[in-house]
Amino acid sequence: MTHHTTVLVIGGGGTGVGTARDLAARGIDVTLVERTGLGGGTTGRSHGLLHSGARYAESDPEGAAECIAENQIVREIAGECIRDSGGLFIQLESDDPAYFEAKLEGCREHGIDATVIDGETARKRVPELSDDVVRAMVVPDGVIYPSRLVAANAESAAAHGARIETHAPVEDITVEDGDISRVSVGGDLNDDIVPEYVVNATGAWAGECASMFGVEVEMRPTKGVMVGVDYDELGPVLNRCRDPDDGDIVIPHDEQVILGTTSIAVEDPDEYDREAWEVDRMFEECAAMLPSLSDRTAARTYWGVRPLYAPDESSRGSRDSGTGAERGISRGFFLLDHAGDGIENCCSVVGGKLTTYRLMAEAVADHVAGVLDVDAASTTATERLPGADDPERLDGLVAKYDASNPADEDVVSRAVPGE
User: Fold this and answer.
1) CB half-sphere exposure, 310, CA atoms < 13 A
2) Domains and CATH numbers, the chain
3) Which residues pair with 335 in a beta bridge?
C-alpha cells in the first residue's frame, strides 16, 4: 500500500533523526527511513567527542563558535546521552608552543572557556600523563553516547507524530516533471512512499542516494579507526595540542577509553581495508600522552567513515598520503538545494560534526519549512529529549530503534526492546 507523507527524510543518523524531530515538532508530517538500525552509518561509529570548539579555535572561527554554542545546548537537552568529562589540550615537549598560544587566543576570542595549567597540575588531574607534558589547556569538551542520542531524537520525533522506519532501504526513486514523485523502500517496510519533499541525509552515502534521482553530489569519504582499551576512570578527554594528526585524541568512558583516529580517503564507504597498522598507530601516538597505553591491548576496534563534501575538501587542500593524512582543518556542513539541479522538491545535507547535529537539522528544517510555507520556528534547542535523565529508559529506546552501535557499546546496556 502506498504511503503519502509531506516530508521524507532518508537516513537515520544524527542529522536525519534531528531533522525529523525538528520538522515534526513544527507540525509537519514526516517519515524517516533508514536502511539499518538508527545511527548505523557514521554517527554510531564515531569517537563520540562533544566538541568545545577548541579543536578549531585557531583555524575556523565559525566552526568553533558553532561547536561551543551547540555544546551548551546539547548539555541542556540531552542529559545521560552525554558525559560531562571536560577536556585537556596537552602540549608535549616536542609540540610547538606557538600552536598552543594560537589555540588559546582563539578560544578566548570565540567565547570558549579555556584555562592554562602547568604539567605538574595536569598530572595531578590525570596521574598517568606523560612526564613530557609541559602544560595543558582546560576546555569544556565532553563525550557523546551516539546510540542514546539518536534513539532519544527518534522518540521525540515519533512523539510529535513522525513515522520512524528502520531496516527500510531505499531501492528506487522515481522522478517526474522535475519532482521526486515516488520512493520505493524495501526491507521491513516494503512500500512505496509518495512525498511532497525529500531530504537526503545519508551522510557519506549522499552521493549514492543522489544518483538515484539523477543528481551528482560529490563526496570524499574518509575512514578512521577507533580502538577501545580497558582503562578505568581517565577523567577528561585528552587532545594532543598540535596540528590535527593520527592518534591525537583519547575519549574516556566508564571502564574503557577510545583512541582515535586515522583519516584516509576511501572510494566506497561500505567497502574499504581495515588495516592493522592503523590500530598500532593509535597505541603509538596516544601513548605519547598516556604512556601506560603502550602496555594495553585492544578490547575492541571499529572504523567509521566521515561524510566529507569533496568541493569543500578540495578548497582546503586536503590530501591523502596513504598514511592517514586526508584531513581538512574543519568539518563544516552544507545544505544543497537540488532545485538548481532540476529536482524541485529535494535537498541534501552533507558534512558536519556530531556535536552540531542539532544545528544542522535546524538549518535543514528551516529550509524545508520555507519551501512548504510553514510558519513555525524550531523548538529543539530548548525541548529536552525523552528519557534524558534516565539511562535505563534511554537504553530501552536504543533497543526499540535498533540503535546499538560500536561507539558506545561498552556503556549502553543491552535492554529489552520497548520502554
Assistant:
1) 13
2) 3-43+146-219+331-408 (3.50.50.60)
3) 349
